[in-house]
Amino acid sequence: MAAAHGGDKRRYEQLLRELGVVIEQYIRRRFGRLAFIDDCVQECLLAIHLARHTYDPRRPFRPWFFTIVRNKTIDLLRRAYYAPAPADEGVARAMESDAGAADPASSVAAGELLTRLEPSHRDALTLTKIVGYSLAEAAARLGISEAAMKSRVNRAIRATALLLQQEQDQE
Amino acid sequence: MSESREKLIGDLVADLRPVRRPGRIAPMLAAWLVAALLYTGAVLAATGPFRDGALHSLYSFPGFAAETAVAVLAIWAIARMALLTGLPGAVTPFRATAWPALLVAVWIGFYVVGFWYPVHPVSELGHRDHCYLQTQLFGLPMLAFLLWIARRLAPPWPVLTGALAGAAAAAIPAEMMQFACMYEPEHILIYHLGPVAVTAALGAVLGPRVLSPRAVRPRRRVGRLH
Q1: Looking at residue B122, what is its pLDDT?
Q2: Are A16 and B1 spatial neighbours (Cβ–Cβ below 8 Å)?
Q3: Chain B interface disruption, residue of A10, A39, A53, A69, most B CBs within 10 A
Q4: Is A130 in a helix, a strand, or coil?
Q5: Using an 8 Å Cβ cutoff, are A100 and A118 in contact?
Q6: I want to staple A57 with a disulfide (CB 3.0 to 4.6 A). Which of A2, A82, A156, B171 is the partner?
Q7: Phi, psi at residue B17, to the nearest 5°?
Q8: Of B88, B92, B93, Cβ closest to residue A54
Q9: Do A38 and B5 touch (CB under 8 A)?
Q10: pLDDT (tens digit, 9 = 90+) per residue, B60-69?
Q11: Of the partner residues A7, A45, A56, the one whose CB lies closest to the CB of residue B23
């Protein structure tokens, strides 16, 4: 990044490529098969580009980088109420399963961070952000009102943000 | 790697420009502090006289000098943290609040202890009729200025940055009121320091609206990327 501050395009390109891989692994490990991983990676890369003037080469790179990635990820989780494309066959099967299926969320492999959430929070995030259900569909699945579902998703996102912050503080 | 990510990286690399003095907040902090002191001093002088012998009290009463020094330190710490929280990863939210909170607690402590042992003779000399309102209003332009500076950074916690900016902006007129208005601990706590909390709350409300990434428009040349 210090070289990028000087305008070295070749090294900046190499940095962005490597960071893209790191961000993808970071999100995948924590959230499993998040439907919009590539969007998230691109948003993070754009945020890093726009915030590059705030990186002080005298400070460590990791806290700067992961603070941006964590914030962008949470921001995207908040915004992602659009129906994402199914991430893989497992998700597609979960989406196609009939209403009698006990728990479509359980058929989707959860990331490490999701497993640390309370079950109700985990189900809320998995159904709306990974399986790709709308709030109404997810609420119907869990047998709660849409308003309760919305509030549960918001609480789940806050809990996720807190876990990510704690994770970073421990590093 | 997806095609769209490849294209994005290509666009970002093409947009790369050298950055001068990256991640430095000291010049911005100094500029804001100097501007805030000059502006607040000028508007206080324009709206009423300073208390007779207020500056001389700094020499006559060491406790008053110590109280002023702690207040100046607290203001510096709050403003510094407001800008430091604009640099991702530079400071944790706990650290950003802990140091300023400690200094503000000591500052407030002078007045709480002052109920029994005031560091300056208590009197109504220099009383201003609208000191509460003046403290509040005089801090607003400096809050706008500090938020404008913070917008040029990338604050990950806009609520915290906004609250700190609000507290710093109002703390300067609040401290200068000790020279421009009457010295009485209860009056100071309610009418001089009270507005600091109100402006901090205002900053917390404004923060996400003016500092969050969606509120900050990308610079023009970067706008072409979308």
Answers
A1: 80
A2: no
A3: A53
A4: helix
A5: no
A6: A2
A7: -130, 150
A8: B88
A9: yes
A10: 889 999 999 9
A11: A56
Q: What angle do CA B128, B129, B135 make, to 5 degrees?
A: 70
The rounded distance, in Å, linking the Cα atoms of B169 and B139 is 5
pLDDT, tens digit, for every residue of B108-148?
A: 999 999 899 888 888 877 788 888 999 999 999 999 999 99
Identify which of A5, A20, A65 has the shortest CB distance to residue B22: A5
Please name the residues in contact with A93: beta carbons below 8 A apart, sequence gap of 6 or more.
Answer: A107
- Contact state of A45 with B12 under an 8 Å Cβ cutoff: yes
How far lies B75's CA from each of A168, B71, B109, B164, in Å?
29, 6, 15, 10
Q: Please say whether the beta carbons of A54 and B83 come within 8 A.
A: no
| A111 pLDDT higher than 90 | no
| Closest Cα in chain B, distance from residue A29 (Å) | 18
Answer yes or no: do B23 and A46 touch at CB < 8 A: no
Decide if B121 contacts B178 (C-beta within 8 A). no
- pLDDT score of A122: 83
Q: Rounded to an integer, what distance in angstroms lies between the CA atom of residue B82 and that of residue A125?
A: 33
In angstroms and rounded to an integer, the radius of gyration of the C-alpha atoms of chain A is 18
| Whether A125 contacts A150, CB under 8 Å | no
Which residues of chain A neighbour B90 with C-beta distances below 8 Å? 56, 59, 63-64
Reported ipTM: 0.76
Q: Which two tokens stand for residue B186?
A: 């209860």
Which residues of B75-226 form beta strands (DSSP E)? none
